[in-house]
Amino acid sequence: SYAARQLDGRSLKVHLENPSAATPSYAITTQNTTDIGTPTPSQIFHSIRTSRWRYISYPRIAGAALHEELYDIANDPHEKKNLLYWEPDKYESVRASLENMLKKRVG
Which are the contacts of 101, defined by CB distance < 8 A and separation ≥ 6? Predict the structure, then answer.
């Protein structure tokens, strides 16, 4: 099927069938901004979520002021305050750690 050829990852079936099963320490989501053809690198972005944090990395596009988002989902579950906009220096180590985890999985 198309989905079998296009998707990469691990099945969540075991966690749906047995919610008490060990859960992954993080989840990665990859999205593109086009529905037509093969997306270019500037149309793809990635997100990583842990039990506490959500980090989103957008492609660096000329003229864009901000290409990353970081949320403390334990204290901001609706993701209303991008910490990299308000306090980037305070959260640099968290940002770098999540960025490295993301790069190891998606490049």
Answer: 26, 48
